[in-house]
Amino acid sequence: MPYDERFVAPMRMELTQIGFEELRTAEEVDEKVKNSKGTLLVVINSICGCAAGMCRPGVALSLRNEAKPEHLATVFAGQDLEATERLRSYIPFPPSSPSIALFVDGELKWFLPRHEIEGRFSEDVASALVTAYDTYCSQNTVAD
Question: How much is the pTM?
Answer without folding.
Answer: 0.93
